Amino acid sequence: MHHRLYLPALAAVLLLSACVKKDIEPPTPEESAANFEAFITAATRKTVAELTPEELRQVFDQYQTMEIAADAGEKAGLARKAEVAAQLRVLRMNVLSEAAMRKYLDEHPVVDADLSAEYEQQVAAVPMEYSARHILVDDEATAKAIIAKLDGGADFAKLAKEKSKDPSASNGGDLGWFALQTMVQPFADAVAALEKGKYTTTPVQTQFGWHVILLDDMRKPTLPTLTEVKDRLQEMVQRKRIQTYLEELKAQSGVDADKAFEQMSKTIEAEAKKRIKAIAPEFGEPRPPVPEGATAPEAPASSD
Predict the structure, then answer these.
(1) I need a labelling partner for 18 at 20 to 30 A (CA). Which of 53, 128, 227, 285 fits?
(2) 266 Cα distance to chain centroid
């Protein structure tokens, strides 16, 4: 059996189950069980009840291995290393932020009315499909002459077969059903402006030549029912709801994002200079003293 490990949920479990400091009391059996269940959810997206005994044992082996390795890292003092401590702080933020979003969704559940409204909005946004014919020629004068014949009662399909240089000529210029987004802009604009059964009274120029266009019909494409897409709609509404919630939190925080980013950039730059100066002092500055018995840091190898 192979379990896909889901991140960042699995990463967050590191805080819940594996990173136990020496100066903190070991977890109780009940806490350990809760930690293991959190690991199962993160690693498999399933519950204990949904796993077979064999699967449960395999996930436990993965959990125990991680727990033992994390304990070894703790004993080695890795949690005090700057980069590890930073990762742990980020993981803590991840756990709390996800918990906050789950709490918000629990307090603002999606109901059937929300799904119906979202469905209608999505349906309204689906572009129309068009069925049209066209006659493509090399110059404007020829296109105008064709329009004059159409004004006189000539058959569009027959003229397309006789005059059009487009491959659709053999089908009377029939382009079948298409969305406007699939056509070049001048052609699409001309089709959108036509009434059903009408043709363009002035030639339409594109990079392919000059067109005379007839709109045969238009329709909404066949769409799945609300019931068929209910799960996807649920996710969409929840995502929108969370996005709104996060925007509200940011507004309430009073944090100026531009200023915060500027300060962060300056701090990162300053820290980078400190690291460089530690191994390659600039402007003749002396290297920091090396404690007796210690080895001086080496400059990083060239990437050439």
Answers:
(1) 53
(2) 29
| Structural domain contains residue 158 | yes
Which of 234, 253, 272 lies at the terminal end of a domain, its last residue?
253
pLDDT in tens, 32-70: 999 999 999 989 999 999 999 999 999 999 999 999 999
Work out the average pLDDT over 253-281: 89
| Co-location of 249 and 179 in the same domain | no
> Would you say the pTM of this structure is higher than 0.70?
no
HSE at residue 169, side-chain half, CA atoms within 13 A, is 13
d(CA 126, CA 130) in angstroms, rounded, equals: 13
Digit-coded pLDDT (tens) for 186-234: 999 999 999 999 999 999 999 999 999 999 999 999 999 999 999 999 9
Q: Is residue 235 part of a domain?
A: yes
Q: Which domain holds residue 184?
A: 127-219
* DSSP code string of 66-84: HHHHHHHHHHTTGGGSHHH
DSSP 291: P
Query: Alpha helix locations (H) across the chain?
Result: 9-13, 29-44, 53-75, 82-107, 112-125, 140-151, 156-163, 185-193, 230-253, 257-279
| One domain, residues 67 and 47 | yes
Comparing CA positions, the residue from 154, 165, 169, 166 lying closest to residue 199 is 154
